[in-house]
Description:
The protein is an alpha/beta fold. It folds into two domains: 146 residues, Aspartate Aminotransferase, domain 1, CATH 3.90.1150; 234 residues, 3-Layer(aba) Sandwich (Aspartate Aminotransferase, domain 2). 39% of the residues lie in helices and 14% in strands. The protein is built from 15 helices and 13 strands. Strands 2-8-7-6-5-3-4 form a seven-stranded mixed beta sheet, sandwiched between helices. Helix 3 crosses helix 11. The two termini are 36 Å apart.
Amino acid sequence: MKLDTEFVRAQFPAFAEPALAGQAFFENAGGSYTCKPVIDRLLRFYTARKVQPYAPYEASRLGGAEMDEARERMSAVLGVASDELSFGPSTTQNTYVLAQAFAGMMQPGEAIVVTNQDHEANSGPWRRLAERGIVIREWQVNPETGHLDPDDLEGLLDESVRLVCFPHCSNVVGEINPVTEITAVAHAAGAFTCVDGVSYAPHGFPDVGALGPDIYLFSAYKTYGPHQGLMVIRRTLAELLPNQGHHFNGDSLYKRFTPAGPDHAQVAACAGMADYIDMLYAHHFSDEATPVARGRAVHDLMRGHEVTLLQPLLDAVKTRNSVRLIGPDKAAVRAPTVALALNRDGEAVAGELAEHGVMAGGGDFYAGRALDAMGVDAELGVLRLSFTHYTSAAEIDQLINALDEVL
């Protein structure tokens, strides 16, 4: 089964927008286009439900029902219980709240393992806990390849480690880390795991229940949705951590880690992401399936399409003398987020690509620790080329031709 990209692109209004005609979007790791079901739900909420939810009058009842629907349907796709999924303003904010919760549970001298492969969102908030006496241990990447070796983790673990934080895949290295294997190693040592899935989830929602981590975070605005952070905290851990919300919300698992009131419209619109998954499944398959099975099938369709498009791009850049490809050159083991270290400023090169109708980005992308570990010049940063399942083969050709001109 192959992904029907014509059907996919018809679900994204951006592809029919005259102002974007002829431009190929390759900065999806910074934020994806939004699918029509999400836009429709957001518009409906702002026009017909923009009242305080959960009151007894009709508009309020419907608004609350849509918020509940978003949590119930997205948690089902992710393979977890509905109250194990929380919404917050961003993944960075969600991680910061989590760090405060762990600080309230841990004792000085206990340890947290972080990596230098992460986006700052799953690194900085944990590192700050050193100010409270928490020991921070760094699991380091291979400086040549950016690879995060699970064997190196074992040497960092002992009875004092309470948490291991790592990315499903880095937003500059791109290599997909073995979440289940790493989680098993951490659990064997008595530690919980926190996985940053921001750079992986756009390429297919994972079955978090099957993967096994205790915490999994990602951003809806990078998965075709509104600007919200989604955070799975499995029940065993969520009940151990101290309440970070209002005291009267302490008995509600999904409210314990939301200090401020939720953005009602944005949360409700997240159900549009589940709508989109269901639409793709119904278009490609004729049988009935559970939400998590539909999510898995669509995930595989997306990944299959992306891998096919990614390999020609990797082949086109990996042998250039003036280019250092960050991460592996095999599409099957990485996400389609391709960072290139050049002998000139990455953002300036992105500007040159724009003249050829290619939208890309340059800089460090909040992954300065990873780039520094690999010896990338901080002043130059990298050129980042990232796409997702709605990208077409023609757009890959447009990108490669533009790179030929610019590089």
